[in-house]
Give the backbone structure.
Amino acid sequence: MTRGLWVTLEGGDGAGKTTQAALLEEWLVAQGRSVVRTREPGGTEVGRLVRDIVLHHRGDIAPRAEALLYAADRAHHVATVVRPALERGEVVIQDRYLDSSVAYQGAGRVLDAAEVRDLSLWAAEGALPDVTVLLDLDPAAARRRLDAADKPFDRLEAEQAAFHERVRAGFLDLAASDPGRFLVLSADRPVGELAEAIRARVSAAL
Ligand code: TYD
C-alpha cells in the first residue's frame, strides 16, 4: 500500500522504545524527511479513550475483550493516521503495532496467536510495517528500569513476571518467523549504539 516508509518499534515495557523513536525522528527530520510519530494504543482521539480503558480500567477485562479493544484502536489508527501518511509519502515511526497484540494478548493472555494476528490484520486491512525493530530485554532488567522510573504501573505493567516472560518469548518467536521485517536488538546496549543500528536499517529501507 505504501509510498512512504513504515517503521514500528516493539518490545516489553521499559525496553526504551520511546527513546529510540524520538532519536530516529530527530535524525530523519534533520535529513529533511516528513515524519509522523505515533503510537498504539492511543494514536487518535478515539484511541486515547480506548487506551484509558485498556491501561487504567480497575478490575478484570476478559482477554478476548482486551484483544478487541486493541484491535479497535488499531483499525481507527491505521485508517485515519498511518495509511494517509504513507500515501503522502511520509515516514511513520510507530511505538507498538500488531506484534504487541500477538505477544501480549496471544502469548501473555494465552489466546491463539494466529487468531489474534488475523483479528488485527482484519482490523488494519492487512497492513504490515516495512521495518519492525524489536528491543529485546530480560523482564527482570525491564522491571528494574520501571521501578527506577517511579511511575505507577498500568494494567499490563502490573502483570506478574511469568506473563512478561511469555511476552518476551512471543516477540522473539515473531521475529524468528519474519526475519525480513524484524531487526532484533538487545535493549541493554548503549542508547547511541542502538540508535545507530536502527538508523542503518532504516537508511537501507529508504
Ligand atoms: P505503551 O504505550 O508502550 O506503554 P507506556 O506508555 O507505559 O510505555 O503500551 C501500553 C501497554 O499496552 C503495554 O503494556 C503493552 C500493551 N499492549 C498490548 O497488550 N497489546 C497491544 O496490541 C498493544 C499495542 C499494547
About this structure: DSSP finds eight helices and five strands in the chain.
